[in-house]
Write a structure and sequence with these properties.
By secondary structure, the protein is α+β, with helices and mostly antiparallel strands. The chain has one domain (about 20-425): Cytochrome P450 (Cytochrome p450), CATH 1.10.630. Helices cover about 50% and strands about 10% of the residues. The protein has 17 helices and twelve strands. The strands form four sheets. A five-stranded mixed beta sheet has the order 1-2-10-7-3. Strands 4-12-11 form a three-stranded antiparallel beta sheet. Strands 5-6 form a two-stranded antiparallel ribbon. The longest helix is centred in the middle third of the chain and has 32 residues, at about 245-280.
Length: about 425
């Protein structure tokens, strides 16, 4: 990773530039030290608080006064007219969340709701998305991993994002959901549109969201008459004291499991491999451990990669439902709040030598998958895919290396996710 010059103590860093996207960590260090709860204007024009210290981040992630429901917030109170405030509120709603989800009637998922609705839906979904189901899926994840590597192993070169890190979680979550294999390439196309345009025009993403919603609604309707051994069938079966998921709720939940699940894993794999390239000593430790048949360093290593340069840079939107104090800063009712996971996970007040990659780090309660009631439901599947991907790549392609100078790599400019556009690599060609 290219080091960017650190801002001076009296000079606030410029945020959300392309230089910032390449390496945001010096800017986040400045914010933690000088303005830990920082009011800023985002590229969309929406203004929000950025929370950058670890303890403040944990507090915010668990604080039920910060609502996930965009319909429960109002704009910053001031002396503007009711008409202006109404327009500003509509603008904030339009520019936050997943493009197109409101129009596609996909708002009733876990990222947008609060207790008691969140408690009910999470309990029902947890009955379907169980640790046992993830564990049973382990052999299939390994098969998918090997199959994808087989497709480029003989070439001696690949783009690890588009040929490996991207298709692996798409095919995995499609199979887990019960999407027929003949339809899975459609999901790959829709997801590709989301990644390509996630930081730019929202129209392409909204179209893909609408197409996913239509397909998932039809699939759920079909499965009601022919339940199988898959996650969508289990969502339909899920019940608790007579309660059940409506078809709209099941569709929204299937959508968010796919939408939230694939890009986080793409970035976990891509960022993880990149971090190992930039830290060759740690990579050698991991390869030696894997060659000896040991998995311990792989497991702690994936957690450290999640902390060091994780897939989710900022947690999804929250809105203050009442005045509150956060990190000594007064937050008004209606203010949008974004918890900067990438900054919190490099906080020296919580992690020793936070800018050092240490794959054997054990005191590692990172926030890479959130905290509190909104902790990522799909984290076990993402960890499984990340471990399988890294272990298989480093074992089957031991001389894997970057095919371009590090400074030529480009990072996507989205707000929530952090990931590479491409990751060109080369290696000694292997016969399958």
């Amino acid at each position: 990773m290219q080091d960017q010059p650190s801002p001076t103590a009296d000079q606030a860093p410029e945020l959300f530039t392309w230089e910032f996207a390449t390496d945001p960590y010096p800017a986040y260090a400045w914010l933690r030290e000088n303005s830990p709860v920082h009011w800023t204007k985002l590229p969309s024009g929406v203004e929000a608080w950025l929370v950058t210290r670890y303890e403040d981040a944990r507090q915010a992630l668990a604080d039920q006064r910060l609502s996930k429901n965009p319909d429960r917030h109002d704009v910053r109170p001031d002396e503007e007219s009711a008409h202006d405030r109404s327009n500003k509120l509509a603008n904030v709603k339009k520019k936050t969340g997943i493009p197109g989800e409101r129009k596609a009637e996909l708002m009733t998922h876990l990222l947008n709701i609060d207790p008691p609705d969140h408690t009910r839906l999470r309990r029902l979904v947890s009955k379907a998305f169980t640790p046992r189901r993830v564990a049973e899926f382990t052999p299939r994840v390994q098969e998918l991993t090997d199959h994808l590597i087989d497709r480029f192993a003989e070439k001696g070169e690949a783009d690890l994002i588009h040929e490996f890190a991207f298709p692996l979680p798409i095919y995995a979550i499609c199979e887990m959901l019960g999407v027929p294999r003949e339809d899975q390439d459609d999901f790959r196309d829709w997801a590709g549109m989301m990644i390509r345009h996630g930081g730019g025009p929202r129209g392409g993403v909204a179209r893909s969201v609408k197409q996913m919603r239509t397909y998932l609604g039809e699939l759920i309707h079909r499965k009601r008459d022919d339940l199988g051994n898959d996650l969508i069938s289990d969502l339909i079966r899920a019940s608790d004291h007579g309660d059940h998921l409506t078809e709209a709720e099941a569709t929204a939940m299937a959508f968010i499991l796919l939408f939230a699940g694939f890009e986080t894993t793409v970035n976990l794999i891509g960022n993880g491999v990149h971090s190992l390239f930039m830290n060759p000593g740690e990579r050698e430790r991991l390869q030696s451990s894997l060659a000896a048949g040991e998995r311990g360093l792989l497991e702690t290593g994936v957690e450290e990669l999640l902390r060091y340069d994780g897939p989710v840079e900022l947690a999804t939107w929250r809105f203050a439902t009442e005045p509150l104090t956060l990190g000594g800063q007064s937050v008004a009712a209606g203010d949008p709040v974004l918890v900067v996971l990438a900054a919190a996970d490099r906080d020296p007040a919580r992690f020793a030598e936070p800018d050092t990659l240490d794959l054997s780090r054990t005191d590692n309660q990172h926030l890479g998958y959130g905290h509190g009631i909104h902790y990522c439901l799909g984290a076990p599947l993402a960890r499984l895919e990340g471990q399988a991907a890294l272990a298989t790549l480093l074992t089957r392609l031991p001389d894997l290396e970057l095919a371009v100078p590090p400074e030529e790599l480009r990072w996507r400019g989205g707000l929530i996710m952090r990931g590479l556009r491409t990751l060109p690599v080369r290696f000694t060609p292997r016969n399958i």
